[in-house]
Amino acid sequence: MTTTPMARRGTSRGIMSCGSCLGWGQTYTMGLCVACYSFARGNPRTGPCTTCRRVMPMKKGYCRLCWCQADQDRRHHDGDARSKVMMEPWLPKVTHQQLFLLCSPRRVPPPPRIERRRGIKGRPLKNPPPAAVRPRTDSIQLPLFPAPRRQFSYGRIDLRRGPVPDNPWLAWALHLAHLMGQARGWSPIVAGTTQRTLVMLLAHHVAGDTIRASDINDVIKGRGASFRRAAELLDIMGIWDQDLPATFEAWLTSRLQGLSPGFADPVNIWARTLRDGGPRVLPRDEGTVGIYVRAALPALLDWTNRHDHLREVTRDDVLTHLGTLTGQQRETLLSALRSLFGWAKRQGVIFRDPASRIKIRRPEPSLFQPLEPEHIARTIQVAASPAARLFVALAAVHAARHHAIRSLQLDDIDLGNRQIIIAGRPRPLDDLTHRILTEWLTYRRERWPTTANPHLLISQASAVGTGPVSSPWIGRLLRGQTATLERLRIDRQLEEALANRADPLHLVKVFDIDDSTAVRYAASARALLTRPHEDHPPSSPGTRVSEPRKPPPASSGSH
User: N or C: lower Cβ tally within 10 Å for the chain?
Assistant: First the structure.
C-alpha cells in the first residue's frame, strides 16, 4: 500500500482527498478533514501504522483510517452492534481499506437484533451485584522483595462476553461501588465505567497486595474513568497506596534548583513548615506559600551568587533589593522575607534577622471605579445558561464572593420565606434572585434527578460526588468579560456606598465586611461624589437597614 504524505501547512480549503484518511470532501486545514485534524491533536505521536504501515498520527499503534475500517468490520460481522462495541480486537484483522466520503464514514447500521421494548427508553438495567463483605484473611504472605510495576490493560477482560471474574476482593469492591452509586446518584454510564475500572484492577487481586497510584494513573487517564473515584473506593478497602508525589513537592523542588544548598535547604524547610504548620505556627494555604516563595525567589537567586549561606545576608542586601521594587510587589517581598528570616532566627539557622524593623511606606489603595453600563449589559447577554445567570445575580445583587457562591447548599435556600444564607449571613431574596433561583432549581432537578450532591450549584463533574464545583468551571462562564463576578461584587458595594453618602457603618451592616474594607469603599465613594459622573448617576436606592430607635431628648430644666 502506498503512503500518502500529509499536506503541508497553509494548504487552502477545498474539495479534495484528505491527506490522512483519504476521504473525499471538504477539508478543514493543512489538507485534513475535521475528524483527522482532531484525531491528530489528541494523538500527536506519529509513526508507521501497524496495519497499513503509513506514517500517520497513531492511537494505540493504528491510524484513523484503520480505526474506521475496524469499526466497519465490527458492525458487519458482530451479532449485536449495540452491546458489543470493543473495536480493538478488530484492528489486527484489517486487510483492506474502504474509502468513503467525508462526514459519512459509516453506512447505515443494520437493524438491532434485540427486540426493542415498547414504551421504555434505553437498555434494560443490569442486576445489582450480590452483597459481599471483606474477605477473611487468616494469614498473609509478606513480600520479600519490592513488588515490580504492574501492567494493567483496559480491554483485557470484556464483561460483555463473559461473567465477572470470581474474586472475593472484586465482589466486595463492586458491592461498595453499587452502594456508593446509590448514595450519590450515579448514572448508568458512571456506574458502568467504575465497574470496568474495578474489574481491571481487582480481577486477579490476592490478599496482601496493594494497588499503587503510579501503576494505574496512566491507564485510567483518558479512558473516561475517574482516578479520584477509584482511589476513594480502594482506600475504603484498605488496599490503596498513594505513591504519587504531591504537586506542591514537585513544584517546590523545581523552583529551588537554582539555589545553593546553603539557601535551598532552609527555604525548603521553611516552605514546608508554612504549609504543614508546626509548634506555635498555624498552617497556611498552599496558594499563600506559593506567593511567598515566588516573591522571595528573585532575591534569593541574587544572593546565592554572592553568598554561600542564608546567614550571610545583611540588612543592606535586603534594602538594596527592596529598592528595586515598588508598590504591592515590594510589600509582598518584605512580608515573605520577614516570614523566612523570622523562622530562621527562631530555629537558630541565622544569628540576626536582617528583615526586622524595616518599614516601608504602604502604597495608597486605588479607588474603586463603577462599571460601565455597556459592560454589565454584555455580561448579562453572555450569561445564557441558568448557572451563569445565578452567578451574576448573586454577585451583582447580593455582592457574594466567589467562594461563598461555590459553598452554597440547598439548605441555605428558603424560597417560602424568601431568604438565602450567604457566608453564614441571612439575606432577603428579591424578586429577580427568587425567579432565577427557581429557574436553576427546576433545571437542576431535570438535568440531574438522582444526584445526592448537597450543594446548590453543581456541574456534570460534581453531580456524581458531594463536593462543590471547581473554580475553573465558574471562571469559564464569564471568561473574557470586563464585568467579571469580582467586578460585579465590587460595583454592587460601591453603588451602595454612593447611595448612602459614603457611610462605612451602613456597608458593614448590609454586607458584613471588614471595617477597613468598608472605609476603603467609603473613601472611593466620597471621591466619586466630589467629582460626580454626570452621565452615570447611581440608579438604585440604598438598602434599608433597621436602625435602633433613638431615645427621646432629655427635657432641659433648671437644677
Answer: C
